[in-house]
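Table 4 source record.
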Amino acid sequence: MTGLQPNRRTWLACLLLAFATLAIYWPARHYGFVDYDDDDYVFNNPVVRAGLSWPNFVWALSDQHACNWHPLTWLSHMADCQFFGINPGAMHLENVLFHCANSILLLLLLNSMTNAFWRSAIVAALFALHPLRVESVAWIAERKDVLSGFFFTQKNKPSAKIRNFKKIIFTGSHGSVSSSGFSPSRCS
């Protein structure tokens, strides 16, 4: 692959990364719900089960159900219920696809920030395939994590164009639209 043009090399690396990520996590589509948080988030949550509607949208923006304020996560789960019903396989598959996209976006983001393609590809592959990512991908309630990764890469695209690597690393996702959050006020 060293003799490939940069554009073809990038496409090939993205395809290999997507294939490897899908191969590792594809069995998750057969998993069921986990009784730890999936009940609060999805299958025992009547608001989420009802799908997308204006009152549910307002609820997602204002409620701290399960001691968390993460409106994008709630809206994502509502969309799942709207389109797939209470189908854990489809919800797991959506997490897998988000993680696959996040891995590719991380490769592209790191490469644009550092101009070090192979290092970026290795880091993205470690992110995609590392066992620590299993919880975020194979647990429906952890949708907030894959959504945060997606919005983190999207928020930092403009910064990457000016090679502002230190700002991205040291400020994290501050200032972005967050899909996760915690407010202890009603959970004490």
